[in-house]
Amino acid sequence: MYPPLSPSDVVVTGMGVITSIAGSVPEFCQALKAGESRFGYLNRERNSGQKRYLGAEIAQFSFQDALQRWPLESLHARRCRQLRKPAYTCQVALLAMMEAWSDAGLNGEQTERSCSVVVAGSNLQQREIQQTQMKYRDRVEYMRPIYGLTFFDTDVVGCLSEVFGITGEGYTIGGASASGNLGIIHGVRHILHGEADIVAVVGGLMDLSEFELQGLMSLGAMGGIRFHDR
User: Fold this and answer.
1) Given the DSSP bridges, would you call strands 198-203 and 40-41 parallel, antiparallel or unpaired?
2) Contact (CB, 8 A) for 26 and 211
3) CA distance 173 to 201
4) Does this model's pTM top 0.85?
5) Helix 210-218 vs helix 126-136: angle between axes, to the nearest 10 degrees?
6) How confident is the model over 145-179, as pLDDT tens digits?
7) What is the DSSP letter of 8?
8) Hey, which of 18, 151, 153, 191 has its CA 20 to 30 A from 145?
9) How far is 97 from 92, CA to CA, in rounded Å?
């Protein structure tokens, strides 16, 4: 019988980061020290309307190009390449997880220890959902079946579990701006209660549609708006 664990026994063994200012942990540390920022008017393709909103986005993001930094024989990179058009939020989560998984030394197909995954955030893929609804609103029967999982955000959990061979618990948990902290708390509890030896906590990228952007601006949580020509 192992002695009971204490919070000090739970440690972070690997990290991965993809943000608007960096695509890896070393780059992220350098960007923070340099005080870099990428906030500005969003340039990603718009769905409708003539407004541009403030925010921070990952410039010139390419899932396939980003995978090139990993060896071709890498099991996880190979599995990522086999996925059929994962949603944008899934792509970012997979790449960040690959860095964290490698950083933790978990490079094999699976570990001998139990592993769970917690995706921190809710309603992560609103822009993806809006685009799908607009594209198929007059022919709903042709919509991709994955939409049935995307609107729950469970496709993020599914993609991570499949690529990294995670067979333990997997779920999303939301706490608005505190979702990341809440995910870490749940990860620690999993380990302290003996439910998992390893917990991957992933702060999901929130891909906002114009409705969320407008709603946050109307609340005063975002500043600035600009009208543009089509």
Assistant:
1) unpaired
2) no
3) 10
4) yes
5) 130
6) 889 889 999 999 999 999 999 999 999 999 999 99
7) G
8) 18
9) 9
